[in-house]
Amino acid sequence: MKNEKLHISVWLAAGILLAGTTGGCTKRSLSQRPSDGPLKIEFVWPGETAAAKAVPTGAQVLLYGSDGSLFRTVQCSAEGHECRVPADTYTVLVVNSDRSNAVCDQEESHRDCCVVAADDPDNENAVRHVDNVYCIGEERVEVKPGNTATTVTLYPQDVVKRIRFSIDPDYIDDIESLGLGMTGVVP
Fold it and tell me: Nearest 5°: CA angle at 108, between 103 and 111?
């Protein structure tokens, strides 16, 4: 009889403990929810085809907030970049980091940002030969708060164009003709 009471007491105590742990409340504050979200940017470079140049070695990502101002500039690998950012709608601009003789200019606003030829330090009022410039942009990239990643796949394109033209110097008597070769970056 005494043994039965002990078993009933043990089972009753175990039942009360089990009911308390499974039926108890868990307090969760809404402030624990993130106000930012993950952003994953992937690149597909045109160098994957036999006719294209080699795939770039890295990229510069310019991330602009919904107000149009520069939020962050990141140097990353040629595969892409992942980060957490405040929930917002972003504009993403990408240019390869191994470009030749070209620099990003007016980065403060995504509307004014452009890639320009670098100045030639040996020749005043001259620019250097530009080559291997790949870039792309994407607007309205919405990052929501939480832990579900917003994924963007970008396809940068070669933006260097070559133009050849001849100048007819009719206004100069001593020059019969003049040839000029020009390379540069186009929008």
Answer: 90
